[in-house]
Amino acid sequence: MLPSSCDTFVALPPSTGGQRVIFGKNSDRPCDEVQEVVCFPAGDYAAGEKVECTYIEIEQVPHTYAVVLSRPAWLWGAEMGANEHQVCIGNEAVWGRESADGDEALLGMDLVRLGLERADTAEKAVDVITELLGKYGQGGSCMEDESGFTYHNSFLISDRTEAWLLETSGKHWAAERVEDGYRNISNQYGITTKIDKEHPEMREYARSKGWWDGETQFNFATVYSFLTTARIEAAGNRYCEGKKLLEKSNGHITAETMMDILRDKDSGINMEGMFMTTGSMVSVIPTDHSLPGVHYFTATPDPERSIFKPFIFVKNLKPLTQTTSPTYGPDDPVKKKPRFQSKPDRKHELFVKHELVAAIIESYKDRGTKITQSMRQLEKTNMTRMEGPLLYGVDEPDLLVNLFTNCVQEEMDVYKTS
């Protein structure tokens, strides 16, 4: 299978409007895959406890942070998400000189969730992910079938003050700090000569393989990428177009800017076809630690035909039932070996209703236009409401425990009246 995957973006002051960090990601996955949005509370665990990830079990930590995740419904990890400390992470598939066809280990998506559960800053998330990578490795099928679609991962990680780009090849890795401006990544290595952290054996390994002569200036992307980049040409085009779209709004990048970028089909960022954008996320993180972040998720495919709905971390959050897919426990074909012998129905309530409306939008132009206008108006109304918490904080957190769920219900009400 040719590599087709995602685009992730981050903008920091002074490229943003106001003292805010804006994070965005499209999750581009197989067109028949359901993506759910779920949240999990913080937790405390006894010594020796384990956590079962997608394919392997690993040691649990004493405390995990509350997280909200957008993830393919069949696996444990996530394509993207945020935690209660306003750390945001998205991952990208990357292919390079090192083979990705190893044994089942941690998926890149598992590492996204583990980084969010265990790190209260972006830099700590880099340390968490790289430590787990060294201990357990990465590997296993990244699709819910027997195709053996495998890849290594890059990660864009942000918090209230900075962002980090982390790129991996097997157990080797390099990381670059982004302290201002904007950055986007696609399915290609992007770290060149500015390396702020690295695997201690990364350079020597490359030299031993004959990829680097040990004398010229070390360039991670040049050394660890394929000799030919033809296989990831589409990713390079999307990367360039995404960078142009960010530059166009440089100095006043907002959540609306990021949503427009994620909806852009001409650039290929909003992907269509056998691989398509199955879920989208935009986060608004004030640099002021007293103010909450607002995390917007679609929980449905194609952001052009979806509504970004807000989520805020408060105490006593309720489960996001309308965007949570059915579970099958030990009978799930993902858990049985050989894996993926069948594919159960994983459609959640919002997905089912959105699927019908998307078909109407596609088939009936006038009616579809009216539905889309109603959806955009609801999105705009909700974003206007979120300016209060973003500017002044949260006075009554109990009023926000069902924020995302209520917005999902409003979306489904729009579908009913349409």
From TrEMBL:
Pfam families for this protein: Peptidase_C69 (PF03577)
InterPro entries: Peptidase_C69 (IPR005322)
Molecular function GO terms recorded: cysteine-type exopeptidase activity; dipeptidase activity
Annotated segments matching region Disordered: 323-344
BP-aspect Gene Ontology terms: proteolysis
UniProt family annotation: Belongs to the peptidase C69 family. Secernin subfamily.
PANTHER family: SECERNIN (PTHR12994), SECERNIN-3 (PTHR12994:SF18)
Name recorded for this polypeptide: Secernin 3
Organism: Dicentrarchus labrax (European seabass)
Gene: scrn3
